[in-house]
Amino acid sequence: MVSFASRKARQHAVVSEDFERELTREVLRTELVRVRALITTGCVIVVFLTAIYLVDSSVVQRVWRGTEGLAEVYGLLTGFILFEVWVHSQIRRNLKLDRDLPVIRRYIGALIETSLPTVILILQIRSMGASQALGFVVPLIYFIFVILSTLRLDFWLSTFTGFVAAGELLTVALIFDPASGSGEPQIYFHAVRSTIILICGVLAGAVGAQLRRQFAASIAAATARDRVTNLFGQHVSPQVVERLMAAGTSAAGDLRRVAVMFVDFRGFTAGAHSRTPQEVVDRLDGAFAVLVDILDREGGIVNKFLGDGFLALFGAPLETSDAAHRAVAAGREMLTAMERINAQTSWPLKIGIGIHFGEVVAGNIGSPRRKEYTVIGDTVNFASRLEALNKEFGSQLLISAAVREALGKDCDDAVSLGEVEVRGYEQKVAVFQLG
Asked: Does the first or last residue of the chain, that is N or C, have fewer Cβ atoms within 10 Å of its Cβ?
């Protein structure tokens, strides 16, 4: 029991690690989008200021009292763009290393970025005067940083951005605007505006947190899907994956009644001698594609591909009350499909199918580093022996007495081959032929 518990804990730890890694990568990708948006915004502002200077230089004189003030703004924007380029390179580096950014660096970066409008505002106050500068466009730049902070997918970082923007704007107003400190209504104007900025930061954080939860849900679903696909062999139909995820089926070993089908191509090795490896692969893949599609429709799964054959299951990993019926229906359809394929090719293939119905232990078997979903038990061994008897009888579809009994009147065309000796079994067993 202790061993089983520890095994489940290890599996959960692997899934958690994969989930956290993918979530971290997704957050870093959104950070890259945010940084690129800031770089673009900085470049657009530089272009806009340059256009204003070239079109109407008198505006520069009225707003910045000459080109010196404009040059200072250019310097700040250039430094800001270079800083964001450096941040962008650091995020890409961490993405390659599958490593998250330190939390303290995120907060320091948010403080530096959000302080840019504050510095520009102080420069503009020196040239325009406090009242005009505080009522001009620069305070609106804070909203750019608050809105883009949503892409951080972190409630507290967005709230921190809003807090810094609101606090710095109110502080600048109180220090540089004389009317604000004398109890005039102007102070309420600045206080309300700062409060709105803070509220926007909180709302941006809430939106970012919701986006993060949606990312987390999507990544968790994708991780679970990958885990199901890895557990249940080389081929699992999308329908089976959906049902497994919805049902929350455990991969732990448990006792199941399943129909086990072995399929093998007769004389395939001899036919492959005279053909190129690519021809062999193409022929085998083409046949497998048809047979596996039939399994999908009947609710079976390929548990293992065995060279020029495969092991298929009906009733595991998802239980079904008509596993034997589905297995026989799939076997019959496979024979019909192969006849159709053989009529269209110069390399006809003949398949042998053996189906047995009984109890198996189905579960996630293997080492701690590599596991796969499989079934173990005498039912599997007997189904394999049953398929091999097709060589002896020149048949293509053999079923056991257990399958014949499970099908009842739906299998009236079964032909009894009597009691047959089966390799590895002391007593003879009843075998039936279909098709």
From this structure: N
State whether the Cα torsion 101-102-107-112 is positive or negative. Answer: negative
Sequence-distant (6+) residues with CB within 8 A of 236 are 228, 229, 301
Please give the C-alpha separations between residue 150 and each of 82, 84, 156, 207, 210, in angstroms, as whole numbers: 22, 17, 10, 6, 10
Q: How far apart are CA 156 and CA 205, in angstroms?
A: 6
CA nearest neighbour of 83 among 49, 118, 108 = 108
Q: Are strands 397-400 and 350-366 parallel, antiparallel or unpaired?
A: parallel
Mean pLDDT of the chain: 83
Residue 237 has what pLDDT? 56
Residue with tokens 């056991």: 400
Q: How is the chain split among helix, strand and coil, in percent rounded to 5?
A: 70, 15, 20
| Measured CA distances, 75 to 64, 172, 394 (Å) | 14, 21, 88
Percent of the chain predicted with pLDDT > 90: 37
- Please, what's the b/e burial string for 62-75 (b: 16 or more CB within 10 A of its CB; e: otherwise)? ebbeeeebbebbbe
Q: Of the candidates 250, 253, 231, which has an alpha carbon nearest to the alpha carbon of residue 363?
A: 253
In the chain, what is the straight-line distance between the N-terminal and C-terminal CA atoms, in Å? 47
- Write the pLDDT tens digit of every residue in 150-191: 998 899 999 999 999 999 999 998 888 766 555 556 788 888
Banded pLDDT at 1 (limits 50, 70, 90): very low
pTM score above 0.70: no
